[in-house]
Specification:
Strands 1, 2, 3, 4, 5, 6, 7, 8, 9 and 10 form a ten-stranded mixed beta sheet that branches. The termini are far apart. 35% of the residues lie in helices and 16% in strands. It contains 13 helices and ten strands. The protein has 355 residues and is an alpha/beta fold.
C-alpha cells in the first residue's frame, strides 16, 4: 500500500498545494479557501469518508487511468461550506458524503452538475438522483441490534413496534443531531406522516435506556454491557467489533444479534454513502470516470469487504461477517427524500424530547 501524506491547512494565507506521494495524497480541510492541485492528471476529491480502507479504491483508479487522486477530507458540512466559499474557482471535482441528507443539502446549494453515464445505470434507480446529480456508492442498513441473552428475536418486528411499553428503559440510540437518525425519522415522516411519526418518536424517547450519547459503536457496547437490551445502529459497526484484534470487542460482537425490521411491509431503512460531480469541476471527465470506477464490481467488493458496507450493484460478494447476519429486503424509498424531510424530522424529534 502506498504511503499517505496527511496535511492540515491552518490559515487562509497558507501557500500549500497538496503534493501527491505514491498514487494519492490526503489532507484535512479546515480553511474553506485554500487552493489545491489543479491538473488534467489529478482528480480533486472532497470526501467525508474517513476510512483508510478506501485507499485501495484510489490506488486502483490511478492504476487504471493514470489519474492521481488528491484527497481533501473533512466532515460533509465543512466541505459543502468550503465549496460554496471557493465558488466558480473551486478546484473540487467530486464530493462524497456518508449519508443521503448531506447529498441533498449539496444539491439544494446547487453544487452538483448532472451526469449522463450508461455505467452508472448499474445502480438501481432508487439509489441515484433522477437527474444524475449524484449516485449511491454503498448502502448501510439501520437495524435493530439486541442482546442475545435478553431478547428473543421473535419479539421484534418493526421500527414502529419499538414504542411498545415492554421496551421501557431498554432502547439505546444516538442523539437527534446524528444524521443517520434524522434520515430514519425523515423516512418515517414520508411513510407515516408527521403526526404519527411524532407519536412514534415520543414512544421511543419514553423507552430510552439513557439519554443519547456516543456513536453507534457506543450503543452496541452499552447494549452488550446491559445498559439496555436494544440498540439502533448501522450494520457496518458490528463487523468492526467482530473482526477487532481486541478479544473484548470480539466478545461484545458475539453477544449482539441483528434484526432487520419491517420485512413484512416496506423493508429495512437504508441510507447511502454517495457522490456527485461538482458544478465547477475542472476535471469533469476524470470525475465521471471516478464515479464509474467506484460502482465497478471490483470497487464494490472493496466497499463490501473492507468496510462491511452493502454494495449498490447486484452480484457483489459481501463481507463474511456481514453476510452471516442474513439477507433482507430494503426500503425502496429514494434517499433524496431523507434530505427533503430533514427539517420536519428535526422538529419532530425536538418536540418529542429526543435530545
Amino acid at each position: 500500500m502506498n504511503k499517505i501524506t496527511r496535511r492540515t491547512f491552518l490559515s487562509v494565507g497558507t501557500a500549500a498545494a497538496t503534493v501527491a506521494i505514491g498514487q494519492f495524497s490526503k489532507a484535512k480541510a479546515q480553511s474553506p479557501v485554500i487552493r489545491v492541485a489543479q491538473s488534467s492528471n489529478v482528480l480533486n476529491l472532497y470526501s467525508a469518508r474517513h476510512y483508510d480502507t478506501d485507499t485501495a479504491l484510489y490506488d486502483s483508479f490511478t492504476a487504471a487511468t493514470g489519474i492521481k487522486v488528491n484527497l481533501i477530507e473533512a466532515e460533509a458540512d465543512a466541505l459543502i461550506e468550503r465549496i460554496k466559499s471557493e465558488g466558480a474557482n473551486s478546484p473540487a471535482d467530486v464530493l462524497i458524503t456518508v449519508d443521503a441528507g448531506r447529498l441533498w443539502r449539496a444539491e439544494q446549494e446547487g453544487l452538483f452538475q448532472p451526469v449522463s453515464s450508461a455505467k452508472l445505470q448499474a445502480v438501481s434507480t432508487n439509489l441515484r438522483h433522477p437527474q444524475g446529480l449524484w449516485v449511491g456508492l454503498s448502502k448501510r442498513a439501520r437495524v435493530i441490534m439486541y442482546d442475545k441473552t435478553k431478547v428473543n428475536p421473535a419479539e421484534l418486528s418493526t421500527y414502529e413496534a419499538l414504542t411498545d411499553p415492554k421496551w421501557r428503559g431498554q432502547i439505546l440510540v444516538r442523539s437527534s443531531s446524528n444524521v443517520y437518525n434524522q434520515s430514519l425519522v425523515g423516512a418515517l415522516v414520508e411513510v407515516l406522516g408527521e403526526a404519527k411519526t411524532e407519536e412514534w418518536a415520543k414512544g421511543i424517547v419514553a423507552n430510552f435506556a439513557r439519554q443519547p450519547e456516543g456513536n453507534d459503536t457506543a450503543q452496541i457496547k452499552a447494549c452488550a454491557a446491559g445498559v439496555g437490551s436494544i440498540a439502533l445502529a448501522n450494520t457496518y459497526y458490528l463487523p468492526r467489533l467482530a473482526k477487532s484484534e481486541d478479544p473484548a470487542e470480539r466478545a461484545i460482537a458475539e453477544k449482539i444479534g441483528v434484526f432487520f425490521p419491517n420485512q413484512r411491509d416496506r423493508g429495512t431503512h437504508v441510507n447511502i454513502s454517495g457522490g456527485g460531480v461538482l458544478k465547477n469541476a475542472p476535471n469533469r471527465e476524470a470525475a465521471i470516470k471516478f464515479l464509474e470506477h467506484l460502482i465497478s464490481p471490483a470497487s464494490q467488493e472493496i466497499f463490501a469487504k473492507s468496510n462491511s458496507e452493502y454494495p449498490v450493484v447486484a452480484g457483489v460478494p459481501l463481507d463474511p461477517v456481514l453476510e452471516s447476519y442474513g439477507n433482507f429486503r430494503d426500503d425502496a424509498i429514494n434517499p433524496m427524500i431523507f434530505g427533503r424531510n430533514n427539517a420536519q424530522a428535526l422538529q419532530v424529534m425536538d418536540r418529542a424530547g429526543w435530545k
